[in-house]
């Protein structure tokens, strides 16, 4: 990757500063990406911005050699060990899993489902430590339910537990583990004959694959599944069917736009628009899908296409989420993060800082886990030749960035 970026840049006669300007990134980010080995994580979003500036597909910048070892200690090791034990228990010689001992009382599937709902509420409130503590025992109970009951409802319950694990693990950037959980969720949903649960988990799988940089696979997975789920009549389709179909369409579009397949992404979003219009409101699937989700994604894609001015104009036409009360808080904060990024790209670091501070106040732990937040704050600090403001310093301190 470093050699490819440097070769493409120098082939165009550009300096690192000129590539940074064209890509809407900081010079520091370009230097990190071109270092051999790269200094720190080079995200798919960074590679997409560089690829767009250089006029190549994002995947053209990926490395074709074995990864270098990570020597840093893994954070929250014990919490991750408990989660991994739950989603992928070791197998005995007969192929059956070793299930952690739970209470010996009667299996209560509704109680397990209520527990999963509570964990989902914790996740929505950015209480990630609580999710890591409370979810593994529920998954172990679901394993026991499947082993003893072998019923569709037991498989469906475990599917939802594994889907919740996939959401959490993707959010905390444990992508390989997330994919393990989501594969299990899809298999359980298929066994239970629950196509809606399977579709939601597949959408999550597409998100995880995109995070992992497997853009071609993510787009193909989501579009193929959307084709299978396309309703014969949009007017007669249930809200769940429309939400699952639409969610897959925009997931496929998200992978395509990050791979510079803008025409493909636009076509998928046109179809997603029809599903959202038929729903008329946000409907649960993975998170939610509906007109506001589509509007947010169109704004995000405008930013990914290098049109921050258009991003801000589109954002101004959106209603305030507090007035609408439909999209999930995380989706709203992700949209506001896009706005902050667009503001710094249009040379308004003060207003970008104000938007980011609002996110920090509402969702401090979520913000710490967003690579785009670090890139945006770095760009804010580099854009000001004078001393940074107190608000900028506080924001940088929250993210652990030196101001």
UniProtKB/TrEMBL annotation:
GO MF term (any one): DNA binding
Highest taxon above the source species: Bacteria
Annotated ranges, domain HTH cro/C1-type: 5-61
One Pfam family recorded for the sequence: HTH_3
Signal peptide: none
Protein name per Swiss-Prot or TrEMBL: Helix-turn-helix transcriptional regulator
Protein's organism: Streptomonospora mangrovi
